[in-house]
Amino acid sequence: MADAAGRLTKLAEEVLGAPLPVRIRAWDRSESGPPGAPTLVIRHRRALRRLLFKPGELGLARAWVAGDLDIEGDLYEALDRLAGLIWERSDAPGPSRAALVRALARPEIRAAARELLLLAGAPVPPAPPAEELRRRRGPLHTLRRDKEAISHHYDVGNDFYALVLGPSMVYSCAYWESPQATLEDAQRDKLDLICRKLGLREGQRLLDVGCGWGSMVLHAAREYGVRAVGITLSEEQAGFARKRIAEAGLADLIEIRVQDYREIHDEPFDAISSVGMAEHVGRTQYAEYAAALYSLLKPGGRLLNHQIARRPVVDEEAYHVDEFIDRYVFPDGELAPVGRTVGQLEEAGFEVRDVEAIREHYALTLRSWVENLERHWDEAARLTSVGRARVWRLYMAASALSFERNRIGVNQVLAVRTPEPGDAGMPLRARDWTG
């Protein structure tokens, strides 16, 4: 069928009631849409079948990961233009659900839908890409299920992560002095900021929950002389971290465990850092998480909880994780508004002393990771798979835009297990962390 791009553009604009913001190039080499705009390339009609059998974000994600869909031109500009149609439908200008239903009832739209079926070809659903985690049944956030979820995300190869993250091997928001700073300097500054907020001193005992590849405990032991325990659920991360620690000559100060925070029984600790880990905890377990960390601290001990937050929604009970994120990136992960996080820490007994919002810093961090991935694309695809590399490119680029557009944020919450009669041991001046 000739001019597939023109036919698809017409159908999309009929349904949306607005001009399509990107150009389309179809598998028959036909093109349609605004000149000079980023181009959505439909490499195979199989992409249409994916959307027909799984409308919405998951169908698009499957087509992207499989390589049936691609983008030519600036990826960020394309995602920014498409955000209002795909990721921000609830508050974006455009047709309401009722308007869409009315549109689909119109004879010309029904005719266009039949045409879409013809364009899609074979009336069978394509198999999901191998990188997709199939939907699982049973209760969320059991010890076994959390370990499997962490393995899906992190056990894709230390060499792959080294390409994306750079030498620091820090997989969380960096702390930028300026956009011109290097990623390495920004990650070092973030680690040092956390150590200063925790008021670390030589001889203290630090617990790093979700220690990743060991960067936080290495910095704390090397620069502040603490004795540190790092825990992770990823076997690959733990092996990598132990090797780094041995090479640094710090094995006498640092222990790395493959262990869940619910399984620690050798408290107390003087300080706890939890950086980019609480997003995995889940709303049903967060009270237990906060209570567990409180119980592991000495009176007067500090917690630094570094956590991504989402914006509040009208119906919090209706909140659900995006299907692309759940199936391809962070299985069972959940974000909460920062107010809820602060409230639950306080309910566990903590005194919250400081909240620092650093969402612009995460946008800069993600753009640096995308740049690293694109620079080493062939090697990254070889180390994992082309589909996995495509997952990460889309996920990180879209996340950068979400931080820039204030769709999500990230906050460092400093809390204290304040002893009786109430001296938290904090300096009088705000953010003079060491007094």
TrEMBL record:
Biological process, per Gene Ontology: lipid biosynthetic process; methylation
CDD domains in the cross-refs: AdoMet_MTases (cd02440)
Domain spans labelled Polyketide synthase-like methyltransferase: 160-419
SMART domains registered for this protein in UniProt: PKS_MT
Presence of the UniProt keyword Zinc in the record: no
InterPro entries xref list: CFA/CMAS, CMAS, MeTfrase_dom, SAM-dependent_MTases_sf
Keywords: Lipid metabolism, Methyltransferase, S-adenosyl-L-methionine, Transferase
Name of the featured protein: Putative cyclopropane fatty acid synthase
